[in-house]
Amino acid sequence: MHRVEHLWGTAISVEVVDADCVATDTVDALYAWFERVDELFSTWRDDSEISRIGRGELAVADASPAVATVLALCDEVRVLSGGAFDVTFGARARLDPRPGLGPLDPSGLVKGWAVERAAAMLLDAGVRQFCINAGGDVVVRGRPPAQAAWRIGIQHPWERDKVAAVVCMVDGAVATSGGYERRDHVIDPRTGQPAHGLASVTVVGRDLAIADAYATAAFALGPDGMTWLAGRADVEAMGITDDRRVVTTPGFEQYRAA
After folding, report:
1. Average pLDDT, whole number, for the chain?
2. What is the pLDDT of residues 65-81, one digit of tens each?
3. Which of 189, 251, 256, 190 is nearest to 226 (CA)?
4. What's the pLDDT at 167?
5. Contact 151, 25 (CB under 8 A)
6. Which residue, 214, 5, 30, is CA-closest to 112?
7. CA–CA dist 18, 192 (Å, integer)
8. Residue 178 near residue 201, CB atoms below 8 Å
9. Residue 230 above 60 pLDDT?
10. CB neighbours of 208 closer than 8 A, spacing ≥ 6?
11. Domain boundaries, the chain
């Protein structure tokens, strides 16, 4: 079973290998969840809860419980990254107004978190072999058809029709952060300036929320980002520098396809 829908400004695909274990209603519920996430967290929507909180119209305590959960996770990553990941940056940003830039923006974590929750929904329904891909942020469980592991391509930062590497895994998550479209849209919250030093960062781990947030933080950290990731016990990573060097953490090679 393979289904693709366009949400969050990207394509979200769900591929289930043991399709006899999943009902259509279960997959419908996944996409309903993705739509709910947009209602809660989209900085592109004036009526989302995160936008209303950012404008002071809604207290976090009065918002949906999911919002408090995500903001607490974001604050943990802010502390771990020394402020390189900071969802409150938009309130202090000295940038020209632009669509999608809100005073409170958990986008660097919430996509991974939402996809991880969707994976839990499939597991709760008895599904054991599947892949969910939301614009390159991927969760996999079990094995794909007739293969030992899922093969996940990492988008090349300059050549859009190529991959920079292929990651192989059975159970886990892959998230990539990079300046693929507009480099100046990726801001280092510590300086308020566009991030520099890394063209892309891919993080591999068990949990997509963490992988997503760590990739965002490492990209903002620039030259220090890969060193920071190497010190995290729960992930491995590959970075491509602005001068086209490939830098990896010590354990990344176990995931790279031959």
Report:
1. 91
2. 999 999 999 999 999 99
3. 251
4. 96
5. no
6. 214
7. 47
8. yes
9. yes
10. 112, 113, 115, 116, 119, 137, 138, 139, 173, 174, 175
11. 2-254
76 residue type, one letter: E
Confidence of residue 23 (pLDDT cuts 50, 70, 90): confident
What is the distance between the alpha carbons of residues 14 and 34, in angstroms, rounded to a whole number?
12
Is a pLDDT exceeding 90 seen at residue 184? no
- What residue has token string 């839990």? 120
- Rounded to whole angstroms, the Cα distance separating 12 from 34 reads 9
Tokens of 108: 């660097």
Direct distance between the N- and C-terminal alpha carbons of the chain, in angstroms, rounded to an integer: 28
pLDDT band of residue 175 (cuts 50, 70, 90) is very high
Residue 158 sits at φ, ψ, to 5 deg, of: -120, -30
Q: What kind and span of H or E run contains 94? A: none
What tens digit of pLDDT does each residue of 206-220 get?
999 999 999 999 999
Question: Whole-angstrom Cα distance, residue 229 to residue 212?
Answer: 12
C-alpha to C-alpha distance for 257 and 150, rounded to whole angstroms: 10
pLDDT of 153 strictly over 90:
yes
Architecture of domain 2-254: Roll (3.10)
Yes or no: say if 85 and 209 are a contact pair by the CB < 8 Å rule. Answer: no
Torsion angle (degrees, nearest 10) of CA 35, 40, 46, 51: -150
Length of the chain: 258
Helix (H/G/I), strand (E/B), else coil: 68: helix
Region of 157 on the Ramachandran plot (φ > 0 left; ψ -120 to 50 alpha; else beta): alpha
In contact, 86 and 103? CB cutoff 8 Å: no
